[in-house]
Automatic annotation (TrEMBL):
Its EC number is 4.2.1.136, 5.1.99.6. This is Bifunctional NAD(P)H-hydrate repair enzyme. Keywords: ATP-binding, Isomerase, Lyase, Metal-binding, Multifunctional enzyme, NAD, NADP, Nucleotide-binding, Potassium. In the N-terminal section; belongs to the NnrE/AIBP family. Belongs to the NnrD/CARKD family. The gene is nnrE. Signal peptide: none annotated. PROSITE patterns: YJEF_C_2 (PS01050), YJEF_C_3 (PS51383), YJEF_N (PS51385). It catalyses: (6S)-NADHX + ADP = AMP + phosphate + NADH + H(+); (6S)-NADPHX + ADP = AMP + phosphate + NADPH + H(+); (6R)-NADHX = (6S)-NADHX; (6R)-NADPHX = (6S)-NADPHX. Catalyzes the dehydration of the S-form of NAD(P)HX at the expense of ADP, which is converted to AMP. Together with NAD(P)HX epimerase, which catalyzes the epimerization of the S- and R-forms, the enzyme allows the repair of both epimers of NAD(P)HX, a damaged form of NAD(P)H that is a result of enzymatic or heat-dependent hydration. The lineage of its organism: Bacteria, Bacillati, Actinomycetota, Actinomycetes, Micromonosporales. It comes from Virgisporangium aurantiacum. (6S)-NADPHX binds at residues 62-66, 122-128, 157, 312, 364, 428. Its cofactor is Mg(2+); K(+).
Amino acid sequence: MKGAWRAADIRAAEKTLMAKLPEGTLMQRAAAGLARRCAGLLQDRYGGVYGRTVLVLAGSGDNGGDAMYAGAALARRGADVRVIRLSDRIHGASYRALEAAGGRPLPGPPARIDLVIDGIVGIGGRGALRERAAEVVGEAAAATASDGGSPVVVAVDVPSGVDVDTGDVPDASAAVRADVTVTFGALKPAHVVGAAAVHSGLVDLVDIGLAEHLVTKPAVQVPDRTDIAGWWPSHGSTDDKYTRGVVGLATGSDNYPGAAVLSVAGALAGPTGYVRYAGTAAREIRERFPSVVCTDSVGSAGRAQAWVCGSGLGTDERAAAELRAVLAKPVPVILDADALTLLADGSMARPLREREAATVITPHDREFARIAGAEPGGDRVESALQLAAQMNAVVLLKGDRTIVAAPDGTAFANPTGSVALATAGTGDVLAGLLGSLLAAGLPAPHAALAAAYVHGLAGRVAAGSGPVVSPDVADALREAVVLATR
Ligand SMILES: NC(=O)C1=CN([C@@H]2O[C@H](COP(=O)(O)OP(=O)(O)OC[C@H]3O[C@@H](n4cnc5c(N)ncnc54)[C@H](OP(=O)(O)O)[C@@H]3O)[C@@H](O)[C@H]2O)[C@@H](O)CC1
Ligand SMILES: Nc1ncnc2c1ncn2[C@@H]1O[C@H](COP(=O)(O)OP(=O)(O)O)[C@@H](O)[C@H]1O
């Protein structure tokens, strides 16, 4: 699991480390890592560093210093390095090093640029980029590289114009869109959540010796494949269909039988050995999935170790009664879609509060607004954490970087999201898979994260064969499970 730390925590660790090192050491480590990565990118794209045009955008702080030292290193390898100073104040020593290596100041971006180094602001940035900086960023991005394409854009530490601590991008037209972000010491929330994660492009972490001095809890954690593989339930030779876990689904309605089919398809790709369906789409489910045991209501279904409720359920009296029946079960439950709408008027507050087993809610932004009163703000992690604490539930806040927030204040971001999932019905598939993981005994935050991870991979797998609809995502889940766990 990788952690992402806020700027203040990074600065505190930096202070401890700097006290032990000769002045300037950290910047030299950072700049060396940055220069190495830029040289690699120039090599891969243009066949070498020599003769390539590199534009350094330098702001007034140490972020500009990192960029100019890296520019100096590239100039020493024969690159034609130009620098635009975005402030009268500038990091003096690095500017002089760049000048000494042959770097030249420019008033504005040249027409031909092979690589842009964005050193406007790093963790010291506040709000959207100021006008002059935003203008230059736009002009540089519109330049042409020597191979006729767009320049490679490398952000130093974080793309300028994003909110480092929250991942918000206050003005997308005034923020750098990086192909690669070279960051130092530790990830920041901007690399892993919100729109800023998309602006960051590929994130390359340079070790400058900071990690051991980070004493605070990360603001958000990001799992990798080994975490998911480690959590994924495995079966032993003594297992049977019941010991692997039974998942129940109260999903679908006369109007939305498809949601039942999709949620059951999601559950069948999970680790449980038995899937029960309770609802009005029993005929459709039996036809598609003969192994699923169907009844027409939660009350007449047998025991399950977790219940999924709400996907396509509707919001009528019958739906409300089914939700109440699920909330009364002493096992983990997932509340999705219409179940969240049914929670909005507060009438289920008491049974929810009285639950002792885990509750997971899976809102997208509009569903979040229905239960929390407003859509998540620019700080999506904080918004999800607040709702988790208020509802005493694990919140899976959907999006490109789905967030999982637990009532104990721990937050995670899923790194595998894919825009291919932005199509009707994929949430139903996710709810079913999550139900299976909960029924198999995974703790709720891990189940939510593992489901989001595999679901994201399934979106990517499905997208490999063209435009994606939600049944494709369900079909791709098995391959995604293999990719994530073997
Ligand atoms: N910490 C570490 O471990 C290490 C840190 N290192 C590096 O130091 C970086 C942090 O440097 P930093 O503290 O000097 O701040 P930085 O990001 O350069 O920006 C500050 C300047 O930006 C300006 N500015 C602010 N908002 C703006 C806006 N919206 N639009 C335009 N301008 C804006 C603001 O100007 P002012 O308001 O003063 O006019 C201020 O002077 C860090 O990201 C990393 O790269 C590495 O070298 C080594 C290890
Ligand atoms: N732009 C996007 N990029 C990546 N994933 C997305 C995007 N938009 C939606 N998703 C994902 O697609 C799924 C949609 O869920 P949901 O809105 O509940 O769909 P439905 O209710 O139609 O089943 C979620 O997993 C969400 O994270």
